[in-house]
Design a protein that fits this description.
The protein is an alpha/beta fold and 353 residues long. It folds into two domains: 169 residues, Alpha-Beta Horseshoe (Leucine-rich repeat, LRR (right-handed beta-alpha superhelix)), CATH 3.80.10.10; 148 residues, Ribonuclease Inhibitor (Leucine-rich repeat, LRR (right-handed beta-alpha superhelix), Alpha-Beta Horseshoe). It is 25% helix and 15% strand. The N and C termini lie far apart (126 Å).
């Protein structure tokens, strides 16, 4: 299918628009099952699209809104390409008639939100691309009917909020790309139904906190991207909860606080056979200032040495202080006894006179 899509412009350019069933200004294959309406300046969905069309390319046009009746009658459609077409809004159930659709590309548009019925009718959809839009929030029911979905690309948006249950219907999901958004916290319970998820990309967000149970349900996760976030530290249990046979992680470009605790966590992760930090040698320290820019992989053993030395210095200082205080107290006690004895002697001498 991918080869057919790649060769589509060449095939259609040879066939021309001779078919009676081909929409005006579009290119169609001999059987009118491949329709190329790309970059034709359309401001609306062209009329006359054959009912048997299984691939429709409407990319690079000037569409503004998709209405609820736009695709009615195109029952055989399997691939719909709408990338870079100026789409800003989808009317309720705009895609509901596309019950056999397997791939939908809405990337590089200006969608700001997805209606709760966005996925209604798309039971066969396997590949959904929504990257490079202006989405800010994923509502709880937007993907509810995408039970066959395997790939979901939401990268390069402005997503800050993912409502509870937003991904619950995606039980067959294998790849989820949320990179280049504005997420700050990765909550537990967000991916409870994604036991088949193999790739989770969360790089280039603002994630500073990951709840302990965030990855617990992911039994098939092979790739976890967390690079270029705001992580300063980690909890070992968060990654120990990953029960996949082998998980490869990216953790560089975060503002790591390089202390003995971080060294212990990295050491534990690296000693778990199923966990792999692929970019460990590219991880650099952000703080404390003396270690800024240093590589934990090169100084990891020194982190605890320095901390131990600091603890020893503090302990020694405390001990010296305590000893000095005891000595001072003993000295004062002796001085007081001497004064009392002296006063006693003076009193006795006075009585003898």
């Amino acid at each position: 299918m991918i080869r057919v899509v790649c060769l589509l412009p060449l095939v259609l350019s040879c066939l021309g628009t001779g078919s009676k069933l081909c929409p005006h200004r579009c290119l169609c294959s001999e059987n009118s099952d491949l329709v190329d309406c790309r970059a034709r300046g359309f401001t609306y969905i062209p009329h006359g699209i054959p009912h048997g069309t299984w691939l429709l390319d409407l990319s690079e046009n000037k569409l503004h809104e998709l209405s609820s009746t736009t695709f009615t009658g195109i029952w055989a459609l399997r691939i719909l390409l709408l990338q870079n077409s100026g789409v800003q809004a989808l009317q309720p159930q705009a895609l509901a008639s596309l019950s056999f659709l397997e791939k939908l590309d809405l990337s590089h548009n200006d969608l700001r939100s997805l209606a709760q019925d966005f996925s209604r009718g798309l039971m066969a959809l396997r590949d959904l691309r929504l990257s490079h839009n202006s989405l800010e929030c994923l509502e709880s029911r937007s993907f509810a009917h995408l039970e066959s979905l395997e790939k979901l690309d939401l990268s390069h948006n402005h997503i800050r909020v993912i409502q509870s249950g937003a991904f619950h219907g995606l039980t067959g999901l294998k790849q989820l790309n949320l990179a280049w958004n504005q997420l700050t916290v990765l909550q537990g319970g967000l991916l409870t139904m994604q036991q088949r998820l193999g790739v989770l990309l969360l790089g280039h967000n603002n994630i500073s906190s990951i709840e302990t149970e965030a990855f617990a349900p992911l039994q098939s996760l092979g790739v976890l991207g967390l690079e270029a976030n705001q992580l300063g530290n980690l909890k070992f249990k968060t990654f120990l909860n990953l029960q996949a046979p082998s998980t490869h992680m990216q953790l560089s470009e975060n503002p790591w606080l390089c202390d003995c605790e971080l060294h212990r966590i990295f050491s534990k992760i690296l000693h778990v056979r199923r966990l792999h930090i692929d970019d460990y040698w590219n991880i650099t320290c952000h703080s404390p200032p003396p270690l800024a820019g240093a590589f934990p992989a090169l100084i990891d053993s020194q982190l605890c040495v320095a901390e131990t030395a600091t603890v020893l210095v503090i302990t020694a200082t405390v001990m010296i202080t305590v000893v000095a205080a005891i000595a001072m107290a003993e000295r004062n006690r002796r001085k007081k006894r001497l004064n009392l004895a002296k006063q006693g002697n003076e009193s006795e001498a006075a009585l003898n006179k």
